[in-house]
Write a structure and sequence with these properties.
By secondary structure, this protein is an alpha/beta fold. It contains 14 helices and nine strands. Helix 2 runs antiparallel to helix 7. Bound molecules: iron/sulfur cluster (SF4).
């Protein structure tokens, strides 16, 4: 049976040391490349509107991830509230950009650990998937430490926008089992315009190289046929090639490998700030104010052959009709 490597770090005491190292970084926060240098331990907040305690907007078995993660019982997703990016078209904007409201969903580290155990034991989830974890890495790792004491044994998935710090990713080596980064752009000015961050390309590519250093090409598959360890790189295709698909795939093939596992996604639809009214007013949003066309998607799929990628998944073009997150009925009052 597969034993996640964080269990060994827990037994050796290394996991507790990593928690200390990561928590120290919160005193002058440089957890993500935004490097705000605010004292989150003392309750200060900055760009991600998040202080000491983790914000959990929702947690549940989730069946919308890649087939080799979902199995029969789903990924036990823990959706962190708020985010370090501000994507105009964020499909999870109800939990990622309602900054002040989400603070109401702060939970203790002990409660975060209990959620993991509920997902593993009560729901039988095959893994724990942290969604938008970048701004809460110290809290996530401390939660894993507490959950280890309660019997956590399933793989940990780090489902990220890839605007991550390499220093922090190094501290996740041996803790995260599956990296699931979404590579969003290949041009910095596009990243700034639509997600409000500088140098997205540099930071996301450095992050990708570090994740690849830790995981390599191959996915480890368990006896149940599900992924237990490895790197799966997502790429959401945007209209008008705003995601820079050719440059992104070319970078991966050249600087990582064309043996890595890719997940190409067609599920984009205009939402959040990309409304009809805003698109009328702001020229930049007009480019996002439609779904992708089938021909645009086909061109990206042709690139997979051109660069020799053989492993992974591509959503069916029609997926844009059914991948819609719904956070309207979530239970808000988590026990603290
Ligand atoms: S995690 Fe939040 S406070 Fe820390 S550097 Fe990033 S955006 Fe700033």
């Amino acid at each position: 049976m597969y034993t996640p490597s964080y269990r060994k770090l827990f037994e050796s005491g290394e996991l507790a040391k990593r928690v200390e190292q990561l928590n120290r970084m919160l005193a002058s926060c440089n957890i993500c490349p935004l490097d705000c240098q605010v004292n989150r331990l003392g309750g200060q907040i900055s760009r991600c509107y998040s202080a000491r305690l983790p914000i959990v907007s929702s947690y549940c078995p989730h069946f919308g991830e890649e087939p080799a993660l979902v199995g029969t019982k789903g990924v036990g997703n823990i959706f962190f509230g708020n985010c370090n990016l501000k994507c105009s078209y964020c499909q999870n904007y109800e939990i990622s950009q309602r900054w002040k409201e989400e603070r109401k969903n702060e939970v203790t580290i002990e409660r975060l650990a209990e959620m993991m155990i509920e997902l593993q034991k009560n729901h039988g989830c095959h893994s724990i998937g942290f969604v938008s974890p970048t701004h809460f890495v110290p809290q996530m790792v401390e939660g894993i430490l507490e959950a280890c004491k309660l019997g956590l044994t399933v793989p940990i998935i780090y489902n990220t926008n890839a605007y991550d710090s390499v220093e922090v990713l190094r501290l996740l080596d041996g803790i995260v089992d599956i990296y699931l980064p979404d590579i969003k752009y290949a041009e910095d000015d596009v990243g700034y315009r639509y997600s409000g961050v500088k140098e997205y390309v540099k930071y996301s590519r450095e992050a990708l190289i570090e994740m690849y250093r830790q995981m390599g090409d191959n996915l480890s598959i368990g006896e149940d046929g599900l992924v237990k360890r490895g790197l799966i790189i997502r790429h959401l295709v945007l209209p008008n090639d705003l995601a820079g698909s050719r440059e992104t795939l070319s970078f991966i093939a050249e600087h990582l490998s064309n043996k890595v596992t890719l997940s190409v996604m067609s599920q984009y639809y205009p939402t959040n700030k990309v409304t009809f009214e805003n698109a009328e007013k702001f020229e930049s949003l007009q480019l996002l104010h439609r779904r992708i066309r089938e021909r645009e998607y086909d061109k990206v799929l042709e690139l997979l052959d051109e660069f020799g990628f053989e492993h992974g998944w591509a959503q069916e073009f029609e997926s844009q009709d059914y991948y819609r997150p719904d956070f309207s009925n979530r239970e808000t009052p988590f026990a603290r």
